[in-house]
Structure formats: C-alpha cells, structure tokens
Amino acid sequence: ITADPIVNILRLSLDEPKAVINEKDRLADAGIDSLRRLAVISLIEEQLGINIPESKIDKTTTLEDLRKLVAKGAHSEALARRPNWQYKKTPRLIGNFLRETLVRGLLRLYVKSRVEGLENIRNVKGPAIFIFNHVDSFDVPIVYQSLPNEIRDHTAAAAADDMLVQHKVLAFVARLFYSGFNLNRQDQILPSLEYTVSLLEKGWNIVLAPEGHVSKNGKLQHFKTGIGLLAVETGLPIIPIKTFGLYGTLPLDKNWPQKHSKVLVKIGKAEYFDKKTPYEK
Question: pLDDT tens across 102-142, in order?
Fold first, then answer.
C-alpha cells in the first residue's frame, strides 16, 4: 500500500497489491476492463467522496487523466434509499388492476398494437431481462402489455434516475403501474446495477432500455455497458423486444400523444452469455 490513494484504488480493483502503474499508462493496458472501471468509479466515490461519470473513463484513459478527473470531480452525496413500497402486495394489486383497466384503455385510444413471437418466451421460467428499443415515451406501457399476464405482473421497469427525481408524479406512476425503480444512466452506475441484480435474485423480471436515452430519429443507438455486465454476470436470459411504428406517438418533449399509431411488437428468442463474453460486445 502506498500513500497514493488513486493507485491504491487501481490496485484494489485489479486485486494486485503490488501492481505498477505509471502516469502515462492507459488503464485498459493495466487490466482495467469495463467491469473494473465501474469498480474504480465506485471505490473513488466510496473512499474519496468524489463522483465521476462512467462515460468519462474509457480505454484511452491514463492514470494521469484519472487524477485530473478526480481533481475536477464533484463531491458525491449518499445515494437516496430506493423506495420499495411498489413491490408489496397491496400496491401491486392496485397497480396491476389500474394498469390493466384504466391505462390499457387510454393506450388503446392512440395505439393499436399486435404482438409476434410470444412462442419465444413460452418456456422462460424464472427471472429474465427484457430489453427494448427506446423510441417513444409509450415504450414501457406498450412493451409491458405485450407480455403474458404471468410475466408482466412480476416485472419491474427500470427508469432513468434523473427523470424520476425531477418528475415526482411520473415517478409515482412508474412505481405504481410498472413496479418502476431508479436506474442511474450516468453516475453511480454500480449501485444501480447491484440493486437491479437484487430484484432479479428475488424473482422479478426486469424490463429496460439498454440505450439509456430515447432515440432522436427512431434508430437504434449504442447500448450502455450496464446491460453487458448484467447479461454476463447474471447468466440470465436476455430477451430482445422491438417495436415498429411507435416512434413519434408521444415524443419525450410532449405532454400528450401527437398521433394515432399501429404498432407491431416483435419478441425475439432468449439469448444467454457466458462469463467469457466481453461486456462491451
């Protein structure tokens, strides 16, 4: 152990207490892969009280670069305790009932949907991770209703933490109707992933948009690293869902639907990833 806290954090993440890392060395060359980058960010926050966005550290980041990020980083605040009331029996009975009656009825006024590929999830037992292309504010309701009752009634939807923090009414609706939970898409990624894994371990299915943001043109965007980590580390089935025709129905910057849409929802076959799969692929 040296007197250099940043070097100590890198050594700890590598599990190599004597690792030699020079100022100009790239972290990737030292063995800091995508998973270890998250560990580094988490340790910096935990030990130094500094919050660094995950996107700021990549394969080209050197030890010198990391020092500059730490020097400029904002002091982090403790993560707010995530509410868990939405998983209790009474809220779920109320939320499921309202979703299947009131919400479904309102959706039908603007979206006529058809589902293909239900046979691909007929034999899925236990928790699974459903991922979808993020093109519209109606994504989650449409994807949710495309799933069979026995799956959707025990499925939790990941929602962007910053959106839920800023919009309290939206946060309540997401939690009551869709068992929603906060997922950080920029900062404090590791605690969010740990919370997601805890839900999976309790038997909850997860539905999330791996792109992290609504597409501005309806085209698929690059996936965030988190979905790769979840897929590889949990070994659970990853089931892709793609919507066609939904883009522009309720744009992110609008408070009311802008058009009536005919939507096709395609459910793909479950995919599994072993421990040797690179997280970023």
Answer: 999 999 999 999 999 999 999 888 899 999 999 999 999 99
In this prediction, residue 188 has a pLDDT band, given cuts at 50, 70 and 90, of low
Provide the whole-model pTM.
0.75
**Edge-to-edge strand list for the sheet holding 155-160:** 111-116, 261-267, 238-244, 129-132, 205-208, 155-160, 181-183
Q: What percent of the chain has pLDDT over 90?
A: 50
Q: Which of 169, 98, 96, 142 is nearest to 242 (CA)?
A: 142
Instruction: Tell me which DSSP letter residue 257 carries.
Output: -
Question: Where do we find the tokens 């007197």?
Answer: 3
**Which residues does 169 contact at the CB level (< 8 Å), separation at least 6?**
none
pLDDT of residue 59: 85
Phi/psi for 105 (5° steps) reads -65, -40
**Largest Cα–Cα distance of the chain, in whole Å?**
64
Query: Is-contact 174 185, C-beta < 8 A?
Result: no
| φ/ψ bin of 94: left (φ > 0), alpha (ψ from -120 to 50), beta (otherwise) | alpha
Q: Are 215 and 206 in contact (CB under 8 A)?
A: no
Single-letter amino acid, residue 76: S
* Rg of the chain, C-alpha, whole Å: 20
Instruction: List pLDDT tens digits, range 193-233.
Output: 888 999 999 999 999 999 888 888 888 888 877 788 888 88
Confidence (pLDDT) at 38: 75
261 contacts 112 by C-beta, under 8 angstroms: yes
Sign, Cα dihedral of 177, 183, 186, 187: positive
CA distances from 149 to 22, 104, 153, 154 (A): 56, 13, 6, 9
Q: Residue 255 class from Cβ within 10 Å (0-12 exposed, 13-18 middle, 19+ buried)?
A: exposed
